[in-house]
Design a protein that fits this description.
Blueprint (H helix, E strand, L loop, with lengths): L4 H4 L12 H4 L4 H8 L5 E4 L6 H12 L3 E5 L5 H12 L5 E5 L6 H13 L3 E6 L3 H4 L2 H4 L3 E4 L5 H14 L1 H4 L3 E3 L3 H7 L3 H14 L6 E3 L1 H11 L8 H15 L3 H13 L4 H16 L5 H16 L4 H13 L6 H16 L14 H5 L38 H14 L6
Parallel strand pairs: 1-4, 1-5, 2-3, 3-4, 6-7
């Protein structure tokens, strides 16, 4: 069986598609466009294995339009130009680009003219936020459709359909006694779910009937499923280990988990983006340079790419791991958000309201405001919080050298008001 189960069962029509009812169900916006034969260029954004490629294939099949496929991992500007040139000789053509977020700026720019003139209808698929990963000029020429993760009901339905409809599986007399392991390991990825099901059946090594249990699935998965899947469970486990190693100030573990991700082909921008978050969430004002270096790392790997990006990532990971830690800023905003939710829209104190009109001045807007630079230490101890929460300290400096300096700064100015 050279063709994987997921490919054998790929839906050929919208009616056969599992999930994405908001886009492809009766009366939905994308379904109407397909049925009317007027499909715009689009970006399909969603997790792996939820139907992005399938929807593109269904569109091409339904419209009976020349259909070209490129992978952003292995294709370049030359490949794009060849497709565009071929499309010019045809009345219409659809170009599907998988993982379009991996195209750099020049590659994405090469698409602009053809998309704008209608030479091609672009369908791009991405697991990353297109606002960050697709050029604004190209994005403005496309509709963005967000695909939702498949829920447990969808995945159960896929398993049932596979056993009932696939010619090979039907002959195996399969009983799905337990499905939790299949669903958990697949991580909501339909392709991974179906191919794992097939692998489990192939590994049973006995005559029908085949009874599938969670224990059996786990044994097969541990033996045969790759230890790093950048789109599956290991993707989340290893990035978690990487982040926790840096948070825990262990540069050796951080570099090891970084190496695991690089060896597994993880997107370097994904790794760098997570380090920017950690620099603020776990280091913050204990070392304000951390977020500057992490942001510089993100910019650098975006320009450099593999393989040299590994050096930049390593430098940044070691710096973050060996930096003093504080989550005070992270805790401060979460506490403030919780209080906003609890207390609602409290009024802004009159003294710090804006007063651009005479009416506002007559209502005492900005009355009594003290311009900080007119006072000693450029500071005036006036009220900046709503009266109902006056004196509530959201920011609690951590016990590190930099934030101890901030504590003294605040103590000198606010005395006992905030308890510093």
């Amino acid at each position: 069986m050279p063709t994987p189960l997921a490919e054998r069962l790929r839906p050929a029509s919208l009616d056969d598609l599992t999930g994405q009812e908001h886009l492809t169900g009766k009366g939905s916006i994308l379904r109407k466009a397909i049925e009317q034969g007027v499909v715009p260029s689009m970006i399909l954004w969603g997790p792996p294995g939820v139907g992005k490629t399938t929807i593109a294939n269904i569109i091409a099949h339904t419209l009976d339009t020349p259909f070209y496929t490129l992978s952003a991992i292995s294709s370049g500007v030359k490949d794009l130009r060849e497709v565009i040139e071929a499309a010019r000789s045809q009345e219409k053509a659809i170009l599907f680009i998988d993982e379009i977020h991996r195209f750099n700026k020049s590659q994405q720019d090469a698409l602009l003219g053809a998309v704008e003139k209608g030479t091609i209808t672009l369908i791009g698929a991405t697991t990353e936020n297109p606002s960050f990963e697709v050029n604004s000029a190209l994005l403005s020429r496309c509709q963005v459709y967000v695909l939702k993760p498949l829920d447990e009901k969808d995945l159960q339905n896929l398993l049932r359909q596979a056993i009932e409809k696939d010619e090979w599986l039907k002959k195996q007399s399969i009983e799905l006694k337990e499905t939790e392991a299949l669903i958990r390991i697949s991580g909501g990825d339909a392709r991974k779910l179906l191919n794992l099901l097939e692998l489990v059946v192939q590994s049973a090594g006995k005559k029908p009937p085949i009874i599938i249990t969670d224990e059996q699935v786990m044994q097969v998965a541990q033996q045969k499923v790759a230890m790093y899947d950048k789109l599956g469970e290991q993707h989340y486990d290893i990035i978690s280990a990487f982040i926790k190693s840096m948070r825990g100030s262990d540069p050796n573990a951080a570099v090891y988990w970084l190496a695991r991700m690089i060896a597994g082909g993880e997107d370097v921008k994904f790794i760098a983006r997570r380090m920017v978050i950690l620099a603020s969430e776990d280091i913050g004002n204990a070392n304000p340079n951390a977020i500057l270096l992490a942001n510089a790392c993100f910019d650098a790997v975006n320009k450099i790419g593999h393989p040299e990006a590994r050096i930049i990532l390593s430098q940044c990971a070691i710096y973050l791991a060996t930096s003093p830690k504080s989550n005070a800023s992270y805790l401060a905003i979460d506490e403030a958000l919780a209080l906003v939710k609890q207390t609602g829209d409290l009024p802004v104190p009159l003294n710090i309201r804006n007063a651009p009109t005479q009416l506002m001045k007559n209502l005492n807007y900005s009355k009594g405001y003290q311009y900080s630079h007119d006072y000693e230490l450029n500071f005036s101890a006036q009220e900046y919080l709503p009266a109902e929460i006056s004196g509530h300290a959201f920011f609690k400096p951590g016990r590190n050298a930099r934030e101890e300096e901030l504590r003294k700064f605040l103590q000198l100015r606010w005395k006992e008001k905030y308890g510093y």
